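To: structure subgroup
Subject: Chain for Friday's discussion

All,

I'm putting the inputs and outputs inline so they're searchable in the archive.
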Amino acid sequence: MTLIDSHRWLAKPGSVGTAVLGTVRICDETGRELPAGQVGTVYFERSDMEFEYLGDPEKTAAARHPRWPHCATVGDLGYVDTAGDLFLTDRKAFMIIPGGVDVYPQEAENALALHPASSTSR
């Protein structure tokens, strides 16, 4: 769980705040924790409360971090800055991997919307 107030959001637009329950970890596809500023899978760690999908043990197992048993993800992608603010960038389910290259549909949509020939850019 993260929390942000309006003053902090104005100073850091797009942030969803800092962790107030547990720890936020950003990890690459192998489970390695990434440094501040790098986009990866968002995991939340809480040793006092296990994350579980109701009636779906396979989905629960897939959401767990490969090395940290108390870390789980709901499929968000994002990064933390050096102050610990979390910024969400996409959902893992929206990512397409053609030929081993990560393609985020939102990035493609943004590029198309900003193209001079786009009706939304006028």
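Points worth raising on Friday:
Residues 2-92 form a domain with the Luciferase; domain 3 fold (CATH 2.30.38.10).
DSSP finds three helices and seven strands in the chain.

D.
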